[in-house]
Amino acid sequence: MTEPIFHIDRSDILDGSIEEVRVRMRDLAAFAEEREPQLIAYHFYVDESESTMSVIAVHPDTASMELHLEIGGPKFRGFGPFIRMRSIDLYGRPSPAVVNQLRQKAEMLGGAPVTVHTIEAGFSHLNG
Q1: Residue 82 contacts by C-beta under 8 Å, 6 or more apart in sequence?
Q2: Statement: the pTM of the whole predicted model exceeds 0.85
Q3: CATH of domain 5-117
């Protein structure tokens, strides 16, 4: 059985950049929805003070995440002038390629740590 990958990242939104970040969030979400039908969920959130952006993605497997990182790379780079990445957390068993790609993304967007959390117990009802 393949295991889903849950991806959560958090970034500080640089002063005066909230509107540009919103435009880029909407563009990236539409881009992913059009090109990645396998994605289970892909959401952007902004906190009440409009100073932090969070991204939550649920991939059905590590291959989905590899594809996302491959085709989304140019879009991720576009956020560079507007955010400073704080953290990337992965839940599941991502491939070494995914972890390496995320470390490169984190370095490009501010040097955030990438942490992998492996499941110990639980279940998902993702298919029904």
Answers
A1: 13, 14, 17, 20, 21, 24
A2: yes
A3: 3.30.70.100
